Amino acid sequence: MTGATNRWWLVIAAGLAVFMVALDSSIVNVALPSIGQAFHARASLTEWAILGYLLPAVALVLPAGRWLDRSGRRPAFVLAVAGFAVSSAIAGAAPGIGWLIAARVLQGAFGALLAAIFPALVTAAVRPEVRGRAMSLVATLGPLGAVTGPALGGVLIAAVGWPAIFYINLPVSLVVIGIGLRTIEAGGRLALPDRAWLLESALLASASAVLLAALTQAPVHGLAWLLGTLVAVPLVVAWGRLPASRPVVDLVRSSGIAGPMAALLLNVTGIAGLGFIAPFFLEEMLHAGSAVTGLTALALPLGMASASSVGGYLADRWNPRGMTAIGTAVIATGLVLISPLSGGWQPADLAWRLALVGIGMGLFAGPNMVVAMRHAPGHLLGTAGAATGLARSLAFALGPAVVTVPWALTGYSITGMRAAAVLAVASVTLAFAATVAAWVVRRRAEPAPVELGRAA
Questions:
Q1: pLDDT at 323
Q2: pLDDT for residue 1
Q3: Sign of the CA dihedral 105, 106, 108, 113?
């Protein structure tokens, strides 16, 4: 860090930006009927108000990180937040469904830039001894934003109308820009994209978009969509042959970020898969209503929020790698307890188990980000942050796709649900193995301390 004091206002600004980006990933869901009526559009068209946001938000995050490593952080942050605000205003004032979808694509692109920049900002904003708490704060606000979206959207639509769900971003963005201008060091310019960056971005964005589309459509339209993931393979291979890919490959191989990325991908895959199955179990097997189902699902993010500060504090005072292992073990314990999916349960029986999974995620998320960013070279902080963001986003799509396979093969029965829960447990078990393995490898690679008096 370049300053002498911790810049907590910058951490708060980064957290607000992450909350806003996550909020916009879910707040539109409840507005689709109103949008369809306003523009006389079919449901198959209005759903692109969601997909148009998610696809660039995931597909562009790694290219955005590569661009950030060549640009000044203050102008990049201001551009990202201002662009998100302007595209939100365009979405709210859209005269037709086409304008709305185009504005959502722009929102997603600037959201990708914000997702890539926040880990680098938080890493530089505070001293290493409090970085776990800072990362945990920001890591918690993302899931809370996604959970808050439908409820806040419903209130705004009922009180003001659907455009308000986009206009709400404007005052928040102004506050975030103001904090950024006061707390981020001046210096650096926005790098102009060159031909090599455009080619690299096109390949990475195309591969990410193909993966996301295949994984998100498979649970809804059939497992044949999973074959679409094969299209991404030649795109990734072509990117790997570019000279521009070498810093990213070296980052993953040698910096210590591979273990945290693998643990994040596997943990979130298991949790997202379980989160996909849980509402069906509640409504089809326990005959719970939609209100009870929604309240039960809230147990997971509330558990995460309750434990994140503890995870960050212990990571700072003890060891962030140790906290990632403990958090993963708690997640695995919660999923094992969920896996029976007994028909004799009440919603509360599932709720406390989900809360335990959330507590584990709260203990894991911030410390894992600290580990990932701690070992990234200073000139690749943007790429490192973007890589973890991409792993997280793909995992949210991968989880439902993975658990749908056994569920669909058993005719969408309770047996298939239980098999899906077992797969979620297996994913988190692999995450624990990856965390411990990375910890052991890193400890062996560190030089042994030299005792006083024995130095040569």
A1: 93
A2: 46
A3: positive
Superfamily of domain 242-445: MFS general substrate transporter like domains (1.20.1250.20)
Angle at CA of residue 48, ends 106 and 169, nearest 5°: 45
1-192 CATH: 1.20.1250.20
* Structure confidence by residue, pLDDT tens digits, 100-125: 999 999 999 999 999 889 888 898 88
CA dihedral 417, 418, 423, 429 (to 10 degrees): 140
Domain with CATH 1.20.1250.20 in the chain: 1-192, 242-445
One-letter amino acid identity for 281?
F
Low-confidence ranges of the chain (pLDDT < 50): 1-3, 447-456
Task: Return the DSSP state at 89.
Answer: H
Contact 118, 12 (CB under 8 A): no
**How many CA atoms lie less than 13 Å away from 144 in the CB half-sphere?**
18
Contact in structure between 280 and 417 (CB atoms under 8 Å) = yes
CA distance 28 to 142: 16
Question: Cβ atoms within 10 A of the Cβ of 172, count?
Answer: 18
Q: Which helix (H) or strand (E) element contains residue 313? A: helix 299-317
CA of residue 340 relative to chain centroid, distance: 28
Q: What is the pLDDT of residues 404-437, one digit of tens each?
A: 888 888 888 999 999 999 999 999 999 999 888 8
Q: Given the structure tokens 């148009």, which residue do they identify?
A: 52
Closest of 53, 47, 64, 49 to residue 100, by C-alpha: 49
Beta carbons within 10 angstroms of residue 77's beta carbon: 29
